[in-house]
């Protein structure tokens, strides 16, 4: 547990540092010093190998550091979104923890939400429904309601003409 704590602290520090202007200035300084030292080393293969090896090693290590940072940020964002879904009475709780679904299942959900978007465009108020099922019921109800109202209006018009 102590090793994880040390790595966690180092990872947080390294992520903050490498994203800072100091790190950029330091990297730029190293490249400038390397370029200026070219004539001193007669632009030898060793001189080129130093920058190539250094940047390759740093890039290799940064990939893992960035991935760890993104995993942590992603988990925190998912927890925050789950809290918002759970706290909102109009949100569908079926969406909590969907990040464990397969890509195909997520694509299927995406299609459902595209359909929900189409229903929402037909609604006057975006808060009228909160799930695909509710949106479909709401749309069906509105269709039947306005159809009935229109039929009543037509009957009144016919009675006036008689």
Automatic annotation (TrEMBL):
<feature type="transmembrane region" description="Helical">
    <location>
        <begin position="21"/>
        <end position="41"/>
    </location>
</feature>
<keyword id="KW-0812">Transmembrane</keyword>
<feature type="transmembrane region" description="Helical">
    <location>
        <begin position="47"/>
        <end position="66"/>
    </location>
</feature>
<dbReference type="InterPro" id="IPR007251">
    <property type="entry name" value="Iron_permease_Fet4"/>
</dbReference>
<protein>
    <submittedName>
        <fullName>Low affinity iron permease family protein</fullName>
    </submittedName>
</protein>
<keyword id="KW-1133">Transmembrane helix</keyword>
<keyword id="KW-0472">Membrane</keyword>
<dbReference type="Pfam" id="PF04120">
    <property type="entry name" value="Iron_permease"/>
</dbReference>
